[in-house]
């Protein structure tokens, strides 16, 4: 059992590494279009987002619709740091590393703050409250103005002029326009490293005593409680780790964009992450990775079909869901394709 | 006076939310699924009415009727093709994601037919504005029609559920699907009827929403959809009076927050109120408390 798990985890790491090597080879051979190159960092971001959300949805069994909120917090705090330190610290990998750590830390703090009240709720009520928190974070970021001058930082929720910046001052966060000209530190290599770290954290957590406690709560809360598992502690643990990883992904994302606005982190982004998780198989980490990669690349691959691409995307999504989840489809698969696929549910 | 006019606007917007939330809550009550495509059905309804008025130059009431028919058929179609096979799936999330797929699908079909540019919707209400207190208080015709239709819909729906056989069947199915089937109720048919009613209501909501806020784009439905979903949860999802109350309160809070505090923060305030309410009453204002069985 243990050996099997280890092998399965190694395969997951192997897939990521192999993808990295193949992409690097393609870049070296110059056979990757610039569009695909531009997609590499977002791919890593979405993979981390999907894996981290799977920790909440699949392992902890709570439906969260506000994951983009944590990404938003991480993105803004990371980019804020990089903008401030830009001229002092010029070594970009280190700058990105610190920015991602800050993004993760700030998002983790938000995860704890939001998690303590929210995790008392269950099911759809939990879902709507996480969605609400995500929207609140987006809205508040939208009216936030921060500038810096000789006298230090200035904050405002009004507009740029309310900051009273000195002549040498510069804006860092300017409300709906967000943060512009964040140093472009994000690279595909950094992204892959973040993916590997995320996988390491999540896969090890699942395999640990804590992870088994979290899953026992998912499977039967009352039974878990009756054998002395601290429900709040373990739920909060999963939620916070997930938030921190999303924050790190957000920071990476921010360093890939020339302008970062809060609008990008609305519920559509949260839902997109959820789509990755469910399509890849709830609780299945490798599935999340594959689904995130496929669904992020699909609209780009379909670009040749121009205006039909999102239509096809939606149809593919519906058909894949029906094929993967409908009991009748599963039966049919068992009967006709049983030799090729193992379709028995993984739980 | 300013407060009063905000309040009236709030009730008007709240009535639209309430009509949408009714659709959400009925579907949730019976199929235990969050129909994320509901907001987009609203948008389709508004586009149907728009096309009837602009291209076929039908009179407004006929346009509304066409919109209702289109949405009802669409609702049943979505239910049969996309949701029904998944209602018995291992995870309730499966049907949620499919609903998201349907939502993208509807948005993109409309995008292909009508283009991405926002259309200016011509109000279907020709009632003149009502001026009270020497013109200090101006109530638009749309507001009056919206509030009245919301109350009528609410009354009709309550009567339908408590008086008719189909309505009773809906209650039975939402209570216990298996037992309802044993009693000879056509469960799938009842679910389809629920979707039909919910989608028909969505068409009315779409037309009223766009009459009050005349900009119509393929994404018009998504934010009101989310807000109405919030309203349904706010009032206690699955409860019809709850959806009505939640919708009204949400609309009033939103408009008051816009008027007195900040336009940009109004959504944040609405959602904060929701969070506070849910933390105090975890199943919403009128929601039933579920006893957990061991």
CATH architecture of chain A: Orthogonal Bundle
Count helical runs of chain B. Answer: 11
Task: Compute the average pLDDT of chain A.
Answer: 86
Distance between the termini of chain A: 15 Å
Number of strands of chain A: 5
Counted by DSSP, the helix tally of chain A is 13
Gross morphology of chain A is globular
Give the assembly state of these chains. Answer: heterodimer
* N-C termini distance of chain B: 55 Å
For this structure, the CATH topology of chain A is ABC transporter involved in vitamin B12 uptake, BtuC
Order of helices and strands of chain B: HHHHEEEHHHHEHHH
Q: What count of domains describes the coordinates of chain A?
A: 1
Major sheet strand order of chain A: 2-1-3
Give the helix level of chain B as a range of percent. Answer: over 70%
Radius of gyration of chain B: 19 Å
* Low-confidence region ranges of chain B: none
Q: What structural category characterises the helix and strand content of chain A?
A: mainly alpha
Main sheet: strands, sense, barrel of chain B = 2 strands, antiparallel
